[in-house]
Write a structure and sequence with these properties.
Strand content: 25-35%
CATH architecture: Alpha-Beta Complex
Mean pLDDT: 94
Number of strands: 8
Structural class: alpha+beta
Number of domains: 1
CATH topology: Nucleoside Triphosphate Pyrophosphohydrolase
Strand order of the largest sheet: 5-3-7-6
Order of helices and strands: EEHEEEHEHEEHH
CATH superfamily: Nucleoside Triphosphate Pyrophosphohydrolase
Number of helices: 5
Low-confidence stretches: none
Shape: globular
């Protein structure tokens, strides 16, 4: 496995998600900062099942944990939408012009308890994606409740996964 940690610059933001500076990713994580940006994406099929991958053991944070279908940092100077397109291409080899997607919402650590400011998207997709084997080792198509059940029974997950599933798939009004 050729996993390589990239210590990129990330924009730092204020409570209104406005850029106020930048810092190396390693420093942000070391200091447990939450004022940076990320994107998360869920692949959902026509049965309402979500494609949930398991991260490789070489990941620096949350190794061997369940994850959103796509997740990543917004690099310094990049928009959420640019990061969304880049991460979907890098992790699932999908081009946004070839799929149907929608914006689900914007979350903040202050209001939603997430690890960062983030925008969340959904892609409608009915087949197994050609995922990046440097990021994920396996995957499951699961209903939102099956995801929560796995977590409640001790399966490990990236920290924001239960927050996102509950907000966008279980607590719909």
């Amino acid at each position: 496995m050729a996993y390589k940690f990239i210590d990129e610059d990330l924009d730092l933001v204020n409570e209104n998600d406005e850029v106020i500076g930048k810092e190396k990713r390693s420093i942000i994580y070391k200091n447990k900062m939450k004022n940076f940006r990320a994107v998360n994406v869920f692949l959902v099929n026509d049965e309402g099942k979500i494609w949930i991958p398991r991260r490789v053991k070489e990941k620096v944070v949350f190794p061997l944990s369940l994850d959103a279908s796509v997740g990543g940092h917004v690099a310094s100077g990049e928009t959420y939408e640019e990061a969304f397109a880049r991460e979907v291409k890098e992790e699932l080899n999908l081009d946004l012009k070839d799929v149907k997607y929608k914006y689900l919402g914007h979350l903040s650590p202050h209001k939603d308890g997430t690890s960062a400011f983030q925008k969340v998207y959904e892609i409608r997709y009915n087949q197994d994606p050609n995922f990046n084997r440097d990021d994920y080792i396996t995957y499951y198509w699961l209903t939102p409740q099956e995801i929560i059940d796995r977590l409640e029974h001790g399966d490990k997950a990236k920290g924001d996964l239960p927050i996102l599933i509950k907000k966008f798939y279980l607590n719909k009004k």
